[in-house]
Amino acid sequence: MSALRLSPSISITLGLVSLTLLLFFMLDTVVGVVPDRHAQLREVREKVSTNLALQLGSLLQADDREILRETLRAVQQRDDDILSLGIRLNDGELIAQGGYHQKFWAPPPDGKSTITHVQIPVYMQDRIWGHIEISFRRPEAESFIAWLRQPDIALPAAIFFFGSILYYLYLRRVLNHLDPTQVIPDRVNAALDTLTEGVMIIDRRENILLVNEGFKKLHPDAVKACLGKKLKQLPWLYPAIAAQTRVLPWRQAMESEQAVSYASLKIPQPGDKIRIVSLNAAPVRDSQAKVQGCLITFSDVTERERTNSKLRLALNRLQDSQSKIEQQNRELQRLANYDQLTGILNRRAFFERGEEILRFCVQSRMSLVCIMSDIDHFKSINDNYGHPVGDAAIKVVASLLSKNTRHNDVVGRYGGEEFCILLPGLDEAQGFEIANRMRESIERLAGKGVRSIEGLRITSSFGMVVQTSPDQTLPELIELADQALYHAKENGRNKVAILNDLNETPRLAPGAAEAASAVEAG
Predict the structure, then answer these.
(1) Which of 401, 408, 403 has its CA nearest to residue 366?
(2) Which of 52-61, 89-98, 508-517 is predicted least confidently?
(3) Chain mean position to CA 358
(4) CB 168 within 8 A of CB 10
(5) Is pLDDT above 70 for 8?
(6) DSSP strands (E only) in 244-290
(7) What is the DSSP string of 399-458?
(8) What is the mean pLDDT of residues 362-384?
(9) Whole-angstrom Cα distance, residue 86 to residue 65?
(10) DSSP secondary structure letter of residue 207
């Protein structure tokens, strides 16, 4: 069996890649190029465990096991690196867990935490009351793809793969240039005629030494005898190329001793037609590596350029169509989510956004204020002044409500003259402050905003509720706020009423009665 013979390019490539890998491993041994994944993972898990222990400590002090269980489940679901976690008393009782803790937990040897099983003692009155147990995923790769993605595998593999390609391509180019040849090798004359590209060889004085059959197809005048002529004596070729290039390609190739390329050069044809060619010029060297001439090739790319032009035109049209479609989609999205009269969220979009806000507040343990608002005596406005004035009143009130909220608050038209507002992160006092500011703003400015009716007075009543339980749903909060709104209307209107439970009696917010005194006096 004959030994495997490798080309010089491949042999040198393998040698260079091997030296590069050797240098990489030496640098990694000395200065640590590849980070220690286990050490990094251990450090991250220690921080996660410490932070989690601090968070759970306050919950353990409150002795609210239901919140403990919810918290553990939420932590386990949010962190993919955690398989399970639990809180265990000294007697072995597991009082709370997140995930299948009994399945994944294995007590660490000698009670010392490992990279996969962390055990944190909990102290009560200077005694160990129990332990917080956390089971992490094993750091080992669970699949071949995951194994390849490890830095200590991926980096050397990438160096070998891409280094081999780059070294090989570079060596192929360099070795070809180093291959000595004569200006016109006799043995290649016949071979050149088989090429579809046009080929021309000139000497340093730009005398034409050889052209192949492909060159004669570039122009009807190219079939005329041109051997021995200077290149500039070809009237159909020389002026056209000189007009399109700053430096003639063959001169640039011989002076720089490097190959040059021009992607698209136009050669005029009879009948006002154009032939587009891709021109490449490379220096030709003798046995002493001295430049003695230039090899010029012409590739006809006319059809390709025409096709590309058509494709570019089609692409531009497609992009225009795509832009119009995106604009129409944005308009449809706006029409689907926003009330056409007021520009605020419609009822459907308000509930979608409201559910997201509610989930975020529950997960973040953040308070949430829900406010229902209704324009007072709206029916009389419609009856006395007509529906256009009623629509104008609704539009002005919606604008004032929006101006008195923050960017992360949600304002929606609930129906007719009713509006609903969600204020995340605020307590009862802060919610009342905003609700009362809205009420005062409407009382002061809404009537003036309807310019078609002089002296029109518009007020609104408000019902407010603060979320008191993570189990409360958005419809339940709106129902409570609506009950409070009804109470505000029953007690004189233009007021803010607060209700947090259906079993309690709604109460007017402090100062609400005084704020509405002007309405009652009128």
Answers:
(1) 408
(2) 508-517
(3) 25
(4) yes
(5) no
(6) 260-269, 273-285
(7) HHHHHTS-TT-EEEEEETTEEEEEEET--HHHHHHHHHHHHHHHHHHHHHH-TTSTT---
(8) 94
(9) 12
(10) B
Half-sphere exposure for 445 (CA within 13 Å, toward CB): 15
Work out the pLDDT band at 85, boundaries 50, 70, 90. confident
- Spatial distance between the Cα atoms of 386 and 473, rounded to a whole number of angstroms: 38
When mean pLDDT is compared across 117-131, 312-326, 429-443, 485-499, the lowest value belongs to 117-131
Q: Residue 188's pLDDT is what?
A: 66
How far is Cα of residue 196 from the mean position of the Cα atoms in its chain? 47
Could you tell me the fold of the domain covering 347-521? Alpha-Beta Plaits (3.30.70)
Q: Would you state the structure tokens that stand for residue 111, as one six-digit string?
A: 């009670």
Secondary structure letter of residue 462 according to DSSP:
E
Kindly state the average pLDDT of the residues 113-138. Answer: 78
**CATH fold for the domain made of 37-136:** Beta-Lactamase (3.30.450)
* Order of strands across the sheet that contains 82-89: 94-98, 82-89, 127-136, 117-124
508-517 pLDDT, tens digit per residue, is 765 444 444 4
CA-based torsion, 204, 207, 212, 218: positive or negative: positive
DSSP 34: S
Give the whole-angstrom CA distance, residue 83 versus residue 76. Answer: 7
Residues in the chain: 522
d(CA 381, CA 389): 7
Per-residue pLDDT reduced to its tens digit, 382-402: 999 999 999 999 999 999 999
Does 373 score more than 90 pLDDT?
Answer: yes
Neighbouring C-alpha atoms within 13 Å toward the C-beta of 237: 25
76 or 314: which carries more pLDDT confidence? Answer: 314
Structure tokens at 115: 């990279």
Distance CA 265, CA 241 (A): 7
- Rounded Cα distance between 251 and 234, Å, is 16
CATH topology of domain 186-300: Beta-Lactamase (3.30.450)
**Domain 186-300 identical in fold to domain 347-521:** no
User: Which token pair is 184?
Assistant: 């016109």
User: Per-domain residue ranges for the chain?
Assistant: 8-33+143-178, 37-136, 186-300, 347-521
Cα 255 from chain centroid? 49
